UniProtKB/TrEMBL annotation:
Residues 177-194 have a biased composition (Low complexity). Residues 1-20, 134-194 are annotated as: Disordered. Residues 1-19 have a biased composition (Polar residues). This is Uncharacterized protein.
């Protein structure tokens, strides 16, 4: 305690527990002559924590915390808030990239996390993520840039694309065969436009989209 009282009586630019408000203000003016920024509380907190006793001195650490002033606690809270906001922003940017969203879209959906839960569940947030996952899975594949590949990698990519095209072709034939089985009875065979079941129709639509994407990919390679 005595050492801190002595330190407080002499103006100091080195943060310590129990530092006076005037000394804190002087530190910020010295460190940020052009004005404090969002990073300022974190910088002060980092310097302040350097004055903490070692881990093997729990009593000293308790005394250190007990001497923190209201101004210092407020600065530490600000530093924690800014740090949390930075982490949250990084997660939002990752979320934006994961679902290929514009910055405006990502902020709109990201804000849904702050809505109050309903029945213990984040209904709107869960609904938005489910919608984005479905939209992403239904989107056509992005074309690979063969110009950035080595000849060996490009050839391997072409073989993979050809194999996938054959798989889609086989799957489409099976779907068409299944659709034919589910057509109207023989009395309605005159009309060959009978629609397959909803499940088969959905599968055919997916295969159509996959074939279109493959054709676009092939056209871009040429």
């Amino acid at each position: 305690m005595c050492s801190d009282n002595t330190q407080a009586s002499t103006p100091s630019l080195t943060p310590y527990s129990g530092q006076s408000d005037k000394e804190i203000e002087a530190w910020f003016r010295w460190k940020y002559p052009n004005g404090a920024t969002d990073k300022s509380p974190g910088a002060y907190a980092a310097e302040l924590f350097k004055s903490r006793p070692n881990r093997d001195d729990p009593t000293g650490k308790d005394e250190w915390y007990s001497r923190l002033t209201g101004a210092q606690l407020a600065i530490l809270d600000d530093a924690k808030r800014v740090k949390g906001a930075e982490k949250d922003e990084k997660k939002r940017i990752q979320f934006r990239g994961r679902y290929d969203l514009s910055d405006e879209e990502s902020r709109k959906y990201w804000a849904l996390r702050d809505l109050p839960p309903v029945g213990g569940k984040m209904v709107e947030w869960d609904r938005a993520r489910d919608m984005l996952r479905k939209r992403k899975s239904a989107a056509p594949r992005k074309n690979a840039d063969l110009s950035t590949m080595t000849p060996a990698d490009a050839e391997q990519h072409r073989r993979k694309q050809n194999a996938e095209a054959k798989q889609r072709s086989r799957a489409r034939k099976k779907a068409e065969q299944a659709a034919a089985v589910q057509l109207a009875p023989a009395t309605a065979l005159a009309s060959t436009q009978a629609a397959p079941s909803d499940d088969i129709a959905a599968l055919l639509a997916i295969l159509d989209a996959a074939e279109i994407a493959a054709e676009n990919d092939e056209a871009n390679r040429k």
